[in-house]
Automatic annotation (TrEMBL):
Transmembrane segments: none
Lineage: Bacteria, Bacillati, Actinomycetota, Actinomycetes, Pseudonocardiales
InterPro entries: ATPase_NBD, ROK
SUPFAM superfamilies: Actin-like ATPase domain (SSF53067)
Protein name: Transcriptional regulator
Family in the record: Belongs to the ROK (NagC/XylR) family.
Gene3D superfamilies membership: 3.30.420.40
CDD domains noted in UniProt: ASKHA_ATPase_ROK
């Protein structure tokens, strides 16, 4: 009795998402199917001193080349440096003219656009496909010319009141790199610390220093995602939007 049963099959090839990094030294776009498998990759090197319009133009060209031949890109995720709120770069001290850039406005038109801070999106990528897979409390440390942190606590990315949680680069001149990381470990008591953007030589000394300075030993690992970390996190951001739309209980109820 009642309505005949219906069968549904998930078709990951029926659409795509794109993840775009717009950074100081590179712009990189990954295209993935709806299962999250990467099916396209295009990259271009950038000059850290180039202006905002040139940087955006290069990113648009990379995005266009990456999505060419993919007719159903459903969501674009973007990761970039600075404090990002509502898709807009509200503060950035690294890239000329980057403060105030509205990324959804710059890249919108074809599909919904989501944007976030590069380190925070790299943190999502580590939890999804990296050494932090299955770990719900960890600190991601992005090293390089500046230092920034991503915090995943209780399985959720911690952004902070202004979206600026983890922007500790301003303190690097006042205190050392190990004091910075140890203070964070003492504050949030994570299960794991992941080091991104650094060679393997940093991991063992940092592990030893954290053992000396902190109340409990903490596991320290080097990221294995390399230069794809931010773009892969942007893919994860875009997929989350698609998954909410596809598998919403409200949508299923409404369809009945």
């Amino acid at each position: 009795m009642g309505r005949p049963a219906k069968r549904y099959r998930f078709r990951p090839e029926s659409g795509q998402v794109a993840g775009l990094e717009v950074g100081p030294r590179q712009t990189l776009c990954l295209v993935a199917d709806l299962r999250g498998e990467v099916i396209g990759r295009v990259k271009a090197d950038l000059d850290p001193e180039m202006g905002a319009s040139d940087r955006l133009g290069a990113a648009r060209r990379v995005l266009g080349a990456a999505v060419r031949g993919h007719a159903n890109v459903r969501v674009l995720g973007i990761g970039t440096t600075g404090v990002v709120s509502g898709g807009k770069v509200v503060r950035d001290d690294r890239l000329p003219g980057w403060t105030g850039v509205d990324l959804p406005a710059e890249f919108g038109g074809g599909c919904p656009v989501l944007a976030g801070n590069d380190t925070k999106l790299a943190t999502l990528a580590e939890h999804w496909r990296g050494v932090a897979h299955g770990v719900d409390d960890f600190v991601y440390v992005q090293t390089g010319r500046t230092v920034s942190l991503g915090l995943l606590l209780g399985g959720k990315l911690h952004a902070g009141h202004h979206g600026a949680a983890g922007e500790i680069g301003a303190l690097r001149r006042a205190v050392g790199f190990v004091e910075l990381v140890a203070g964070t470990v003492l504050a949030v008591d994570p299960r794991l610390v992941v080091i991104g953007g650094a060679a393997d030589w940093l991991t063992a000394p940092l592990r030893a220093e954290l053992t000396r300075l902190c109340l409990f030993p903490v596991r320290v690992e080097t990221s294995t995602l390399g230069e794809d970390a931010v773009a892969l996190g942007a893919v994860r951001l875009a997929l989350s939007r698609v998954e909410r739309e596809l598998f919403s209980v409200a949508d299923v109820a409404g369809a009945g």
